[in-house]
Amino acid sequence: MRLTFTDQEIEKSMALYKVFAKAFKSVSEHSIRDSKEHGFNPTEFAVLELLYTRGPQKLQQIGSRLLLVSGNVTYVIDKLERNGFIVREQDQKDKRSVYANLTEKGRTYLDEIYPIHSLRIARAFSGLTQEEQEQLIILLKKAGIHSQHLLFR
User: Fold this and answer.
1) CB contact at 8 A, 117 and 42
2) If exposure means fewest CB atoms within 10 Å of the residue's CB, which of 36, 40, 118, 130 is most exposed?
3) Beta strand residue intervals within the chain, DSSP E
């Protein structure tokens, strides 16, 4: 593990961080606008999107996948359940595990709005070619894995 960096390497890393943060914020605004248009806060929309694209999820997995603390997950799940978009289901094999799953109402609603959301996100990335998008995916995964690895050293 490298412990020393040149001033130039540090400056380049800080510039990269700032550009990355601004780009993330700009692209995220498209998703935030979508969620608000459909009457959800961004976290609620992210939970619905996760369940729609990945299927039923353990409540603990939802929190870790969306970087939420357990209290926030419970609050969001409660609200979405009250509004009839999701249901909690106990794992039949492990009674301690509880899953969140879309209801028919939730799935039907997302069948309607998710294609529009996907198009808006595609539009947000349309400044990059398909090849550039693939390269960016590879590079961001590489940076994220390395950064995560360093947290536990």
Assistant:
1) no
2) 130
3) 57-58, 86-90, 98-102
| pLDDT tens track for 4-50 | 999 999 999 999 999 999 999 999 999 999 899 999 999 999 999 99
What pTM was estimated for this model as a whole?
0.84
Polymer length in residues for the chain: 153
115 within 8 A of 29, measured Cβ to Cβ: no
The Cα–Cα gap between 97 and 120 comes to: 35
Q: Is 84 left (phi over 0), alpha (psi -120 to 50) or beta?
A: left
CATH number at residue 83: 1.10.10.10
Distance between CA 145 and CA 31 in Å, rounded? 24
- Single-letter amino acid code for the residue at 41: N
Classify residue 6: in a domain, yes or no.
no
